């Protein structure tokens, strides 16, 4: 008997590692599992005997230990994993090429980007997609690409830890961009309380992710530090929303992550000038009746891990 695909989104944060497991079920994605392993202050500071520093303030031994604990808490079928990299580990640029017969686009883009970064092309892991020539004066006879790249050592280190913990890393996504898949899933499931073109904000312990315009040619995805009053939107986030409104008028704002009160929702609405509502995992994902009830704690930033699992579910 063939099983329906199961996807695990793994969010590696500063204070914990979270995993959300989703399964295709009657045209929707159902919640099959959730697990979280908290990191001690020493661990998220990167203190590990014999372990070198690792991206996002985690050493490889600490990350591997947390991932192994996560694996023990999840269903056996939760093997295929979608991971993310924080924006700080990634370079994003629009590059152009002169079209030539039989050219290897990936190799040529890697050479151009590596030259600008004073690196060897083989030291970069790169992905690209066609970019619209929307800028004035752009040459019509040149190919334009949106390029995303990270150091190969960084990508391999993260994938290696996940693999050694018993998962199969399949997709690597950008941390904030993953939330665009959650917005697309809301649209597919007609979850439109915030209109047809909402923004999504995930409130974490010390940073805030923003995503908007999932169907636009120039979607918005950005991570902001959360300083001062954690219940108020960072000023930089407000400015970014205002700028994006000119490009793609927004119809509302979903908040996820740390719980907010009704008074906080009003503050966000006044600050951002948009209708605001709180998005819960229960609204997005039903639980499977034949399994033990799966609960996602209300006080956790579950959306990153869920968005990564959605990324896998919508790609198959």
UniProtKB/TrEMBL annotation:
Signal peptide (residue range): none
Domain of life of the organism encoding this protein: Bacteria
Cited SUPFAM superfamilies: Actin-like ATPase domain
Name of protein: Pilus assembly protein PilM
Species of provenance: Photobacterium halotolerans
